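### Sample
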Amino acid sequence: MTSFTTPHLKLTHAGALQLLTAAVAKATAMQQPQCIAIVDDGCNLLAFLRMDGAKVLSEKSALHKAMTAASSRVPTGNTAVDLETRLALATGGQVTNLKGGLPIVVDGHVIGGIGVGSGTGDQDREVANAALAALAALAGARTFE
């Protein structure tokens, strides 16, 4: 290894599907249909599902939540209110401050993001956390309360 490279963990499609399955199970148990998006650390979409009954426009917000969490490396919904509109405008609407986006962190490295939308912000975050908890059981991922 040189000063020009660094070891890098990658979220695989298999990992994304495990996250998606766990999120769907939690949303089903809550009886709250959700849109669920999972991206890698470069904000590339790896998995997406709109559950039957989930709000159509929540497709976009779920993806933007996942992208925001992956790129900012923190949960969405905590940005100062006076900054949220400016960040959204500066990024062409790509950055959101809506709750429900969580970074996927394994061994201290952000390897992606999960975004959930169609319920309340707290429901969205609960579903995302359930997915991370399932990954944590397998790969030591971090959850956010």
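The radius of gyration is 14 Å. This sample (Glcg protein) is used throughout the tutorial notebook.
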